[in-house]
Design brief:
- The complex is a heterodimer of chains A (468) and B (232).
- Chain A has 468 residues and is of the alpha+beta class.
- In chain A, the strands form 2 sheets. Chain A has a 6-stranded mixed β-barrel. Chain A has a two-stranded antiparallel ribbon with strand order 10-11.
- In chain A, strand 2 and strand 3 form a beta hairpin.
- In chain A, helix 2 crosses helix 16.
- With 232 residues, chain B is of the alpha/beta class.
- Chain B has one domain: 3-Layer(aba) Sandwich (Rossmann fold), CATH 3.40.50.300.
- Chain B is built from 6 helices and 10 strands.
- In chain B, the strands form 2 sheets. A 6-stranded mixed beta sheet of chain B has the order 6-7-8-3-9-10. Chain B has a 4-stranded antiparallel beta sheet with strand order 2-1-4-5, with helices on one face.
- In chain B, strand 9 and strand 10 form a beta hairpin.
- In chain B, helix 3 runs parallel beside helix 5.
- The chains are: A alpha+beta (468), B alpha/beta (232).
- Chains A and B meet through helix 1, helix 15, helix 16 and helix 18 of A and helix 2 and helix 3 of B.
């Protein structure tokens, strides 16, 4: 017959009150777990998406991240194949790096001269098969839409083709040809009729002459854009891009400017027939937890080989990731604190009532020889039992509810997403959520019972025995 | 002339004053007495005479406002709260008017409780508890909770609880007040028999002069003063 045994019996003396207390703790646990699981779903979902698109790390020539966007030709990496081989050969990185692929980011002007329209664009050159492989990354086994994978309809052999954002397609009047749904019709007053004649001139004359085969061009029914950019030497250069498909981007500013293409086409546009460079090497790791380790090892490798390169992780490349985490963490903390306060006051109330109902009993057991500390332990043990039962039922209820929600078929569109994704509550993906919440509630229950327990311990025995 | 060890309790000019709200009430107005060991002692007096206050002092659950209280040779004013708790656990058994059993514990567990406080080993606890339950005739009710027992049975459990640890002193504060006369008599008989068997010092308070039938020594108090101290 130990203290906990007696505590267990004591809390069920007033079973209704104790059940309500346990229920309050359980509901708090459920709220924290479900919200925590929902937040985890957003955070890990975002992380997975960013890692699929940007890898974990990107290697740039020093200064590119801050200044290179203005002059990608100058900040290009020429020996990128050698650098990738160097990384592949490193025994420390071998096991943690899943894949690497070169990319080329730049800005230019895209023109659809059949429709007399042109606009600036943000260009991304990649190797299609490797980019597709990158999008397979799913270290957290997240349920996701297949649409993002299926939208990359480029083949490695298709070196003249690309994909553009839906906004870009709309602005370049390609909605019909590319079957873009919900494309608003262009207002008649903005059809470009009032532009001066020289502005309508096709800038394809700037193109290097041997790029396109006229017969092949005539046979190809895909919409075609002319892309203009400045080469490394500063001269303008133009290439033609066949648009295979559109891929809507989550952010309108990006969607209105996005042009993805085979890397060789981007290189031809930016470097002409000269040296082929890339602006970055994307490194995707097997697990995000290895990111810091990989970063350190890569830096050591670059220092050792005197390579003028810098490494940026995806949290710097996409600052919104940390901002969202920070916002959701604040929201989660707020909810956890509110729930904690509910538990705190509920247990203080329950334990105080329990003490008041048992004054003569406290006097009796003190008279029998139980020390003040024993009384304190007895009531704290009761708080502990309430906390353990409430938190445990809370975990069980959370698991059942999360299972129900995850299998209900509910979908939603997270911020910056374009596709509906399954609504999932990932209560176990963060290994600290369930044990942390359980332990937190139990400790809070113990803490809440200290005040009433101290009150019980300080009772004067004769007064307690006289109590009716 | 008895020496110190022959007295379970020695009171020297003991006074006890309470504050009832803002009013000071002098419950004990200067009592000096010596209670011999291994005897069935009765403190008798009308309600409000100071019997319970006196028992509280003897039970080390209260301290005097003035004077000296020695219980089993120990000046109780010298004990810290923890020492007093340990002293009570070791030396003093209590029997209350309202039985004061712990409602969530069975008869067996209630009797075992003082042995737990003394940290006795499991085997010894079991042995002593069963023996004591047998002595009070409640072996068949050992798993019953207090609310499943009659008043007389509850008081028997309380007697077993008080005696199970073999205390030097057992204090019973009007133990028959809440029992009918027949049951009350059986409880007095039981306590007397247990005292005789265990050779424990019993101090029994009552305002009922009938309980004096078994008493070996009677202390009569009135208005906080010792009126009479007689051997029977």
């Amino acid at each position: 017959m130990k203290t906990l045994h007696i505590a267990f019996r004591n809390i069920f003396r007033n079973s209704r009150r104790s059940l309500m207390t346990i229920l309050a703790i359980s509901v708090s646990a459920v709220a924290v777990h479900l919200f925590g699981g929902y937040v985890a779903n957003i955070i890990y979902g975002m992380q997975s998406d960013y890692v699929r698109d940007n890898g974990h790390l990107q290697i740039y020539r020093k200064g590119f991240f801050d200044y290179g966007a203005g002059n990608p030709a100058v900040y290009g990496i020429s020996r990128y194949q050698e650098i990738m081989q160097l990384i592949n050969a490193d025994p420390d990185l071998k096991n943690i790096v899943l894949m690497m692929t070169p990319i080329l980011r730049f800005y230019g002007i895209a023109g659809n001269f059949k429709k007399d329209v042109s606009k600036t664009f943000y260009g991304l050159g990649y190797i299609p098969s490797e980019y597709k492989k990158m999008r397979q990354w799913n270290d957290y086994s997240m349920k996701r839409s297949r649409a993002r994978l299926e939208r990359i309809v480029l083949a490695d052999s298709d070196t003249e083709a690309g994909i553009i954002g839906e906004g870009m397609a709309r602005m370049l009047l390609l909605c019909e040809e590319l079957n873009v749904k919900n494309c608003a019709e262009k207002p008649p007053e903005a059809n470009g009729a009032d532009l001066p004649a020289e502005a309508k001139e096709d800038f394809s004359f700037l193109s290097e002459s041997d790029d396109l085969n006229p017969e092949q061009e005539a046979a190809d029914k895909r919409p075609k854009l002319d892309l203009l950019a400045a080469t490394a030497g500063g001269a303008p250069n133009v290439v033609s891009l066949y648009v295979n498909n559109t891929e809507i981007q989550g952010v309108k500013a990006l969607d209105d400017n996005y042009v993805a293409m085979h890397i060789s086409l981007a290189q031809r546009l930016l470097y002409g027939k000269g040296q082929k460079k890339v602006t970055g090497i994307v490194v995707q790791l097997r697990h995000t937890k290895d990111m810091a380790l990989a970063k350190v090892r890569l830096q050591q490798l670059f220092d050792k080989n005197k390579l003028d390169l810098e490494i940026r992780d995806f949290t710097l490349i996409v600052p919104m990731y940390k901002q969202v985490i920070s916002f959701l963490s604040a929201l989660f903390s707020f909810i956890a604190v509110i729930m904690g306060l509910i538990v705190l006051f509920t247990i203080i109330n329950t334990m105080t009532m329990s003490v008041m109902e048992r004054v003569d009993e406290i006097g009796t057991i003190r008279a029998l020889g139980l020390r003040r500390g024993g009384i304190l332990r007895q009531f704290i043990a009761e708080g502990l039992v309430l906390g353990v039962l409430g938190a445990t039922f809370g975990v069980l209820a959370s698991v059942v509810l999360a299972y129900g929600i995850n299998n209900s078929g509910l979908t939603w569109i997270p911020p910056n997403y374009v596709d509906r994704v399954p609504l999932t509550i990932l209560i176990f993906i963060n290994p600290f959520l369930v044990p942390g919440c359980w332990l937190g509630l139990v400790l809070l229950s113990v803490f809440s019972s200290v005040f009433p327990a101290r009150k019980a311990g300080k009772m004067v025995i004769v007064d307690a025995l006289r109590h009716v | 002339m008895r020496n110190n060890s022959e007295f379970a309790v020695r009171l020297t000019d003991v006074k006890k004053t309470y504050l009832m709200g803002k009013v000071e009430v002098e419950a004990i107005k200067g009592i000096s007495l010596q209670i011999p060991t291994k005897r069935f002692n009765v403190i008798i007096g009308p309600s409000g005479s100071g019997k319970t206050t006196l028992l509280n002092l003897l039970g080390c659950i209260d301290i005097p406002s003035a004077g000296r209280v020695e219980v089993c040779g120990q000046d109780i004013a010298c004990l810290t709260d923890e020492q007093a708790s340990d002293f009570r656990a070791e030396n003093i058994g209590f029997i209350f008017q309202n039985f004061n059993l712990i409602p969530v514990l069975s008869a067996y567990e209630n009797v075992e409780y003082p042995l737990l406080l003394m940290k006795k080993p499991v085997k010894e606890r079991k042995e002593l508890t069963l023996k004591m339950l047998d002595a009070v005739g409640l072996t068949s009710h050992k798993h019953h909770r207090p609310n499943e027992l009659s008043g007389g049975q509850r008081q028997r459990v309380a007697i077993a609880r008080a005696l199970v640890k073999g205390p030097k002193l057992v204090l019973a504060d009007e133990p028959t007040a809440n029992l009918d006369s027949k049951t009350g008599q059986s409880i007095i008989d039981l306590m007397y028999a247990m005292q005789a068997e265990n050779h424990t010092t019993f101090i029994f308070s009552s305002h009922d002069r009938q309980v004096m039938a078994h008493a070996e020594k009677v202390f009569e108090i009135q208005d906080g003063l010792l009126m009479q101290d007689k051997e029977l």
